[in-house]
């Protein structure tokens, strides 16, 4: 067991700024509560011991001036305490735990430095959830390679807002076939967004605000049959949208805006995606089917005025915000429900009588 007298003997050193217990043979749970007296502590190193159990929130999360925390090469279990997010002075964190299942760390201002790119490091843990968002991740290289190559059990991955660079890491999906949610938006990944395996478990993908390019693979609907949320906006994709989008019967939200797609949105998208409720896109077919679940539609990207007949009732119809005029044909009295909110209608040339169903 960890000898609590080690910490207790230091209690009088209330101005202590650095405490290193690195490379001893300390065993058992660490008495984090005892740290509460060290209000000025800036660095704590517990690495390369034999400590175990869950990390105790009390004490550890009260170190408001803490800048560096090293918990690596121990046997701590479970997840890192969520209160670590509130340590605004924390700059460096090391946590190679043999039984760690969840690592979640969101930074407020990108001042926290987290280094996971080390060719000599083989992590001991097998994560199911990894969230490192809005941090200074791999500040020197901005690369994402070695650390995640050793992970094969991930179900949730969020590496958004980290400035990561390099080719899109499609190998993440090959290594982790049970991934449910992958969020890597606001980075600088390049190359194609091509997935080689059928990902039955995947329901959420967000690769927006990167530098991805090329055409989407034609069989994307077969690769992602159970996708619910697909966010591809603000990249440099080209070509037409694949007709097999229509295979995504569970798709609720699709955003392909701010790309270089050409052609119309395929009609199969409206036929097969029964649950689609939010669609941000470019040129639309001239007539849309009675798409009952659609609540939000953005047709801002159309370059030329076109006739649009909406055979669906929209809870909210998000209209054009540019100076380009649109020609819209509204549903007649046979519409199923009234539109509750019409936005920017003055920018449109509306043909036909406005039905009472909109009132």
From TrEMBL:
This is Receptor-like protein 15. Transmembrane segments: none annotated. InterPro entries: Leu-rich_rpt, LRR_dom_sf, Plant_LRR-RLKs. It comes from Quercus suber. The keyword ATP-binding applies. GO terms for molecular function: ATP binding. It comes from the Eukaryota. Keywords: ATP-binding, Glycoprotein, Leucine-rich repeat, Nucleotide-binding, Repeat. The keyword Glycoprotein applies. Pfam families: LRR_1.
């Amino acid at each position: 067991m960890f000898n609590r007298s080690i910490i207790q003997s230091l209690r009088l050193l209330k101005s202590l700024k650095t405490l290193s217990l690195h490379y001893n043979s300390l065993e058992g749970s660490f008495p984090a509560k005892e740290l509460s007296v060290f209000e000025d502590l800036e660095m704590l190193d517990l690495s390369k011991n034999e400590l175990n159990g869950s990390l105790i929130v009390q004490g550890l999360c009260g170190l408001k001036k803490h800048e560096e925390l090293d918990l690596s090469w121990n046997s701590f279990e479970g997840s890192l305490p969520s209160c670590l997010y509130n340590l605004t002075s924390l700059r460096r964190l090391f946590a190679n735990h043999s039984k760690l299942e969840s690592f979640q760390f969101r930074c407020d201002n990108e001042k926290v430095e987290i280094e996971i790119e080390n060719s000599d490091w083989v992590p001991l843990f097998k994560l199911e959830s990894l969230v490192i968002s809005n941090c200074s991740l791999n500040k020197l290289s901005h690369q994402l390679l070695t650390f995640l190559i050793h992970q094969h059990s991930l179900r949730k991955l969020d590496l958004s807002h980290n400035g990561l660079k390099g080719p899109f890491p499609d190998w993440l999906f090959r290594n982790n076939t049970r991934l449910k949610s992958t969020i890597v938006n606001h980075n600088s990944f390049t190359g194609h967004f091509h997935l080689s395996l059928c990902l039955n478990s995947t329901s959420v993908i967000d690769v927006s605000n990167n530098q991805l390019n090329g055409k989407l693979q034609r069989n994307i609907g077969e690769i992602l049959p159970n996708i619910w949320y697909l966010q591809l906006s603000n990249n440099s994709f080209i070509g037409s949208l694949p007709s097999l989008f229509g295979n995504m019967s569970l798709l609720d939200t699709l955003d392909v805006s701010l790309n270089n797609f050409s052609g119309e949105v395929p009609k199969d998208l409206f036929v097969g995606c029964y649950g689609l409720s939010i669609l941000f896109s470019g040129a639309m077919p001239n007539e849309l089917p009675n798409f009952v679940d659609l609540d939000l539609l953005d047709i801002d990207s159309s370059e030329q005025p076109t006739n649009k007949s909406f055979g669906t009732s929209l809870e909210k119809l998000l209209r054009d915000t540019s100076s380009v005029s649109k020609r819209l044909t509204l549903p007649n009295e046979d519409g199923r429900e009234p539109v509750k909110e019409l936005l920017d209608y003055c920018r449109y040339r509306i043909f036909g009588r406005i039905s009472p169903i909109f009132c």
